[in-house]
Amino acid sequence: MAPRIAPSILAADFGNIQQEVAMLNASQADYIHVDIMDGIFVPNISFGVPVTEAIHRHAQKPLDVHLMIQQPDLYLETFRNAGAEIITVHYEACTHLHRTLQAIKKLGAKAGVAINPHTPVEFLRDVIDELDLVCVMSVNPGFGGQRFIENTYSKVLRLKDLLTSKDAKALIEIDGGVNLQNAPLLLETGADILVAGSFVFTSSDPIATIAELKSL
Known about the structure:
Keywords: Carbohydrate metabolism, Isomerase, Metal-binding. By secondary structure, the protein is α/β, with parallel strands linked by helices. Helix content is 32%, strand content 20%. The chain has a single domain, classed as Aldolase class I (TIM Barrel). An 8-stranded parallel beta sheet has the order 1-8-7-6-5-4-3-2. Strand 2, helix 2 and strand 3 form a beta-alpha-beta unit.
């Protein structure tokens, strides 16, 4: 099965955001990955609801919204109304993770959980049945263009084993430093969705780059 590709709009040219979204619409991308950063949970600020709404107005692909923020429960409905079809929260930011996942599903969105590079996949054991997606951070969150963390491969293998042992159906998404060199092994170890930001948007032909990833 071909991988699902989720280009991260964080790496796009925000002076031409409508044009960038139109390019993604014309590509083989499966989702548009939208990174929301608050400058507290991660050491960077990206954008918020108005930009997400603007992306959604022009997008023909589902929005995969990744909340890298403290207290995500306060904003679940807001981002759902802004167009999020997948809402991913961080394990590390949720005191009552099960309640948060139930709230996302009640809003009619798919529920994802992201885990930072230092967080063991085993911490998701008691909620894995509730998840539609697990986002494995393969860089430390907060900035695009970072180097891929090699330990991610073994982490994906452990996550795949956990999903199999629990007969869970969550998709495995990899976020950070994905390129044509590491993508084949990520897919071999069990990844389903590849998030690619700088690798796509800084290429000379983003549509062709997305197609290359899709063909792996």
